[in-house]
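Progress note, project year one: complex with tricarbonodiimidic diamide.
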Amino acid sequence: FRMHRILTAEPSPLPFDPASTALVIIDMQRDFLEPGGFGESLGNDVSLLSAAVPPAKALLLAARAARLLVVHTREGHRPDLSDAPPSKLERGEPTARIGAPGPMGRILIRGEPGHDIIPELKPQDGEPVIDKPGKGAFYATELAEVLQARNIATLIVCGVTTEVCVHTTVREGNDRGYRCVVVGDACGSYIPEFHAAGLAMIKAQGGIFGWVSTSDDVIAALS
Ligand code: TIU
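Model obtained:
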């Protein structure tokens, strides 16, 4: 057992202790990754997210083997939509709005099939699942309490989408004092140039709000 390990990352190597590190998997839900859900209702080609699944699965298996805390998040709302602000419900010109019926149940609603995490990344017993009404995983959730209870200092973050929920969560985490490292190939976006720019923004200016690494480098550091 090595107390301190070094993760290869940009803009600089990141020392970390597995005992105080969590893998946070953002919103790998059918609603974003499969046709007929929220992502497609916004006009997106959801197949653009599928490349992130094998690296995220490999990361999940490595994190479990290294006994990291694994946290899964899901974006979604109460069936009565009481936790969804009108500004979110009314936004844009979607083909179907949040709460509307779709092939995977009501769009972005807790308890519906589309709200589930994809089968490849199904949470195990003992892995907290954080339900979040917003884009950031800290806003209006128990995430801070879950991390504090385990004395977590470093967050290894992956999921979808890079520039929306991953970015918002990392910005929130950075301001709360967590060292946040984003695993680029285990993230995905409907807009490839935003994925690339999103990763570049994090690590620019000396790592202005985090680090960027790869699934291979994280797995090597954990093994
Ligand atoms: N999880 C997440 O990123 N939610 C979004 O709405 N992302 C989009 O890119 N639309």
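The pocket of tricarbonodiimidic diamide is lined by residues 27, 32, 42, 75, 135, 160-161, 164-165, 190 (CB under 6 Å).
Strands lie at 5-7, 14-16, 21-26, 69-75, 101-102, 105-106, 129-132, 154-160, 179-188, 211-213.
No further modelling is planned for this target in the current period.
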